[in-house]
Amino acid sequence: MLKTTLLFFATALCEIVGCFLPWLWLKRGATPLLLVPAALALALFVWLLTLHPAASGRVYAAYGGVYVCTALIWLRVVDGVKLSFYDWLGAVVAMCGMLIIVAGWGRA
Predict the structure, then answer these.
(1) Which InterPro entries does the record associate with it (predicted)?
(2) Whole-model pTM?
(3) Residue 19 Cα distances to 1, 16, 24, 41, angstroms
(4) I need a surface site. Which of 8, 25, 89, 107 has the fewest CB within 10 A?
């Protein structure tokens, strides 16, 4: 389960980077050259999703919980926004959902 969780975090980070870089270009006037690493990050994101040993719907459902946590960590570290109690609570609930789904992969 640890390997799957770490893989989900890597996947989420690639997705966030792949979306953040074009946002920088469009909203903050950064160089359009950022689209190259953005495309590479999104390609890596798609490839990482294929490494999971479960049906795609379950993978996406479980991945959603980790994505929530990764996005909140990004919000804190990159954007410098202080997380609230409700942010942390939501992250815990999302991770619990992910762990429940992953625990049931071999039982379904």
Answers:
(1) EmrE-like (IPR037185), UPF0060 (IPR003844)
(2) 0.85
(3) 27, 5, 9, 9
(4) 107
Which amino acid is located at 53 in the chain?
P
Instruction: Retrieve residue 51's tokens.
Output: 């490494």
Tell me what pLDDT residue 57 has. 82
What the block records as the tokens of 82 is 């202080």
Looking at the structure of the chain, the number of domains it has is 1
Consecutive H or E run containing 83: none
By residue range, what is the domain housing residue 53?
1-104
d(CA 105, CA 23): 35
**Residues 29, 102: Cα–Cα separation, whole Å:** 40
- Other beta carbons within 10 angstroms of residue 51's beta carbon come to 12
16-71: pLDDT as tens digits: 999 999 999 999 999 999 999 999 999 999 999 888 777 678 888 888 999 999 99
Report how far apart, in Å, the C-alpha atoms of 92 and of each of 26, 48, 49 are. Answer: 32, 23, 22
Calculate the CA 98 to chain-centre distance: 12
